[in-house]
Specification:
single chain; binds flavin-adenine dinucleotide
Amino acid sequence: MIGGSAAGLFTATLLARRGVDVRVLERIETLEPEPRTLIVTNRMRGLLGRVAEGSIVNEIRRFELFTDGRAATISLNHPDLIIERRTLIQSLSEEAQRAGAKIEMGRRFHTLHANGNSLRVEIERCADGSREEVHADAVVGGDGAASHVARAAGWAPLETVPLLQAIVTLPKDMATDTVRVWFVPQDTPYFYWLIPESPTRGALGVIGESGPETKRCLEQFLEKRKFDAIEFQGGRIPVYKRWIPVERKVGSGSVYLVGDAAAQVKVSTVGGIVTGFRGALGVAEAILNGGASRELRTLRRELDFHLLLRRSLHSFQQSDYSHLVDLLNDPAKKSLGEYSRDEAWKMLWRVCLRQPRLVLLGLRGLLMRNRPFAGPRLAPDASDQTRTP
Ligand SMILES: Cc1cc2nc3c(=O)[nH]c(=O)nc-3n(C[C@H](O)[C@H](O)[C@H](O)COP(=O)(O)OP(=O)(O)OC[C@H]3O[C@@H](n4cnc5c(N)ncnc54)[C@H](O)[C@@H]3O)c2cc1C
């Protein structure tokens, strides 16, 4: 396993539990990854069980949507979870080791080659630059959006978008179980959000299309609403444009990709934690079952559906968002709260049954051509992954 982060460590755990001899090689020296405040659906609990608990810092019961003076509130039947990424990765690492996986820090993947019936992997020890070789029947790349494993095995580079968030003091009128979302299409085809991580602090973020422009928009947004940034967190997220087959053969050996390395990201909201865990389940199934995986088939359907939604939303203008908020009648809001964005099919099917005019609005978005969903830039080198402003 190359990359000891969320998707990689979960894959390692699943395989080690089934008796596979797993070695995880991670380039950072100590298990102190960048802190990051993340929001995920309750689905994470179902996937990880007790391993998830230590990283949960808050629970969300409501979303408030704002656009151009209008607002809508959606109450969730199952709370979303605010998690701290560093603690999550540390807990996943402990679980992987408990299951029998060996974790080696300070090891940077360089390249891989076919070697008879297996694969020869070249690794650099980050401390002194010395090289070593590892031999494996299968290599899994869980090394993020700029995956070197993917390049070495012949997958094309991924397109990415910048995501930037500032840790801020929460406004006094804000409930700590509520997330605020603002749609401001003149700044970004995505959205701004404020997620409370404690009774006093939250992460105010934005997804954009170009790094400098996204930074400028976030700074303006902070200034306009009188927020002071305590710290910044940022990185580039892969954009899911089509399903990426997770396995390639190199000689007789198999190479797999998981998580951001395979763009397993919901492109409607650009969330990759839960879908990366589902990718991990799928890759583990594929390795253990000789290629077949039900989980990968359902994940593909889910990611394709988010792609359709993104294509529609990407062309939305202010008036479309206003119309969207106006159309959210009580039954439609109830359906939005019943299902999570990790069950987008079910959620939107129910919402559209209860407010059929939303289907027309969605179709209009798909047909508009003012801002087609295409062409953010390619993933830079991995060193750019966590660059902050
Ligand atoms: C600021 C920010 C906020 C986000 N918010 C959310 C959110 O709220 N909800 C959500 O669901 N998602 C969110 N995301 C996305 C989410 O963090 C990612 O989808 C997820 O972390 C991807 O996990 P991963 O394990 O696939 O890859 P990564 O976390 O990128 O891990 C890749 C690992 O591989 C290692 N590595 C890289 N190259 C090498 C090499 N050559 N050799 C050895 N090791 C290597 C890296 O050090 C790293 O540990 C956010 C992302 C950012 C940047």
